[in-house]
Amino acid sequence: MTTLLELDGLVAGYGPLTVLHEVSFSIEAGARSCLIGRNGVGKSTVLKSIMGLTDWRSGAVRWQGRDIARRSTVERARLGIGYVPQTRDIFPSLSVEENLIAGLRNRPVSAIQRAYQLFPRLKERRHNGGTQLSGGEQQMLSVARTLLGEPQLLLLDEPLEGLAPIICEELIAAFDVLSRDEGVAILLVEQKVQEALAFAQQAIVLDHGTVVHAGASAELLEDPAILDRYVSVTQVPVHDH
Ligand SMILES: Nc1ncnc2c1ncn2[C@@H]1O[C@H](COP(=O)(O)OP(=O)(O)OP(=O)(O)O)[C@@H](O)[C@H]1O
Ligand SMILES: [Mg+2]
After folding, report:
1. How do residues 70-118 score in pLDDT, each as one tens digit?
2. What is the CATH number of the domain that holds 168?
3. How far is the CA of 117 from the centre of ligand 2 (A)?
């Protein structure tokens, strides 16, 4: 197993605010991991810090052994880290296909067919505007656009948030294909803990900006004490429109 990404004592935050206190964990090539924890503990800040979107203070962010903590966001993306933010960054004024074209950069247009294979719903709606998409379709588009960069590691920030169970299943099935058939490593940040643990092999639990547990997801599923303590397991059903 080769280690793709390693955080080693990472301290980062926003301006004067330090959010992450010596966060350390690593992601192996092709592995499926999840990062869980309550609201506001710093999960999104971990992903943003991996992409260089926070104020770095100390510690290493290693990509295939090289420290990239001072590299720009664009450079990190080019190295093979794909990031799908919690905000579903799509261009609302552009159609599905135009959004994908905008994500192509120098890649051939045929790459879009691959995105449609993974998400047939996007193909059906390819001429719809970004605002005419359901929450689930927007999420699929956001993921599909990031995949055009052919990342080796995909960082997903609460992709299932606010989506109906059937749409969650479709997204998870697509992540499964990426992981199994294409060997893309996935770091999934999710509040839907059961879904996250069912998908991931490795679970990292964050609390107050520090890693409080890291280990096999299967072990954590059998340890309700840790889940009760650090993660809210109750879920409010939300419907996708
Ligand atoms: N851009 C920002 N500027 C200043 N503080 C921020 C910024 N973004 C987040 N924070 C603060 O950093 C802390 C961690 O936030 P973060 O968004 O990483 O949490 P989270 O675990 O992703 O929460 P959620 O589950 O609600 O998405 C919070 O106290 C938040 O207020
Ligand atoms: Mg967040």
Report:
1. 999 999 999 999 999 998 888 888 999 999 998 888 888 888 998 999 9
2. 3.40.50.300
3. 29
> Positive or negative CA dihedral for 59, 62, 66, 72?
negative
Atom of ligand 1 nearest to the CA of 189: 22
Domain containing residue 204: 3-230
Q: Report yes or no on 185 lying in a domain.
A: yes
Strand 3-14 vs strand 17-28: parallel, antiparallel, or unpaired?
antiparallel
pLDDT for res 235:
46
In the prediction, which pLDDT does 239 show?
Answer: 53
Q: Is residue 237 part of a domain?
A: no
Confidence class of residue 229 from pLDDT cuts 50, 70 and 90? confident
Ligand 1 atom with the smallest distance to the CA of 191 is: 25
Q: How far apart are CA 91 and CA 93, in angstroms?
A: 6
